[in-house]
């Protein structure tokens, strides 16, 4: 019997984004209940126990009873954040791993101890990943998130995310999704909102931008991203971001999503 077929294999739909963008969570002090907080743990006002997780990259998650935190995850250029619903709410169920992690997060936030800032930050990062994972598993959201939730399209998306420099053909991507070429193009466009080729180009440019911020040269980034030349990469980059690759650092000081 042949094992590890496409139908059986588990495709990691989040790791590529965690590699591309640094995820950081900074818990706000009790007196800093910022309206711009992106992560909020709502608590029962009587027992103090956590009731739900609210994630909104638009900000405005905080209210009086709970713990608020800022989430930094690549800003406006991270396509995963743009695909999230405006307000993602996860009700906490007893006995789940997420409930246990949130309870520990709340305990650390309410009773600070040695190394507490680091512990809270790491637990907050796990909570964000679990919330996004829940959204994907339940098919919440549209665009990229809907594509990642799709039973077969997600395979082609993961392939592009994991190996962006490969000279992917539409036929290869369609085969991963177990669709004909024409059906794949139409379905991908309907679900994700772009053609497969346009999405792959945008993803390559987004990763290229991150590499440029790490001091890689335009020529190196162009090669790694699957472009034929530095000139081709530069033209595509300028069209997508509105500025030349050589000015990426000056243009990287963007405001956080609001």
TrEMBL record:
Keyword field: DNA-binding, Transcription, Transcription regulation
GO molecular function: DNA-binding transcription factor activity; sequence-specific DNA binding
Pfam families: Cupin_6 (PF12852), HTH_18 (PF12833)
SMART domains tied to this protein: HTH_ARAC
All copies of domain HTH araC/xylS-type, residue ranges: 154-251
Entry protein name: Helix-turn-helix transcriptional regulator
Species of provenance: Acidisoma cellulosilyticum
Organism phylogeny: Bacteria, Pseudomonadati, Pseudomonadota, Alphaproteobacteria, Acetobacterales
């Amino acid at each position: 019997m042949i094992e590890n077929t496409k139908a059986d294999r588990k495709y990691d739909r989040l790791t590529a984004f965690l590699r591309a963008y640094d995820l950081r969570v900074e818990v706000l002090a009790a007196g800093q209940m910022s309206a711009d907080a992106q992560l909020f743990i709502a608590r029962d006002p009587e027992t103090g126990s956590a009731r739900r997780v609210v994630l909104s990259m638009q900000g405005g998650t905080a209210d009086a009873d709970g713990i608020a935190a800022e989430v930094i995850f690549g800003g406006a250029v991270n396509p995963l954040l743009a695909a999230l619903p405006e307000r993602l709410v996860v009700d906490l169920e007893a006995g789940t791993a997420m409930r246990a992690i949130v309870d520990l997060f709340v305990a650390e936030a309410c009773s600070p101890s040695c190394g507490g800032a680091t512990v809270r930050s790491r637990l907050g990062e796990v909570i964000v990943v679990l919330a996004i994972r829940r959204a994907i598993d339940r098919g919440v959201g549209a665009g990229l998130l809907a594509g990642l939730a799709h039973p077969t399209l997600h395979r082609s998306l993961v392939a592009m995310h994991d190996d962006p420099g490969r000279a992917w053909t539409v036929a290869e991507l369609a085969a991963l999704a177990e669709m004909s070429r024409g059906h794949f193009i139409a379905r991908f466009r309907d679900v994700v909102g772009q053609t497969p080729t346009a999405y792959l180009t945008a993803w390559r440019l987004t990763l290229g931008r991150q590499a440029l911020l790490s001091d890689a040269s335009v020529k190196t980034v162009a090669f790694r991203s699957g472009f034929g030349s530095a000139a081709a990469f530069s033209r595509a980059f300028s069209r997508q971001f509105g500025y030349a690759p050589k000015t990426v650092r000056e243009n990287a000081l963007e405001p956080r999503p609001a």
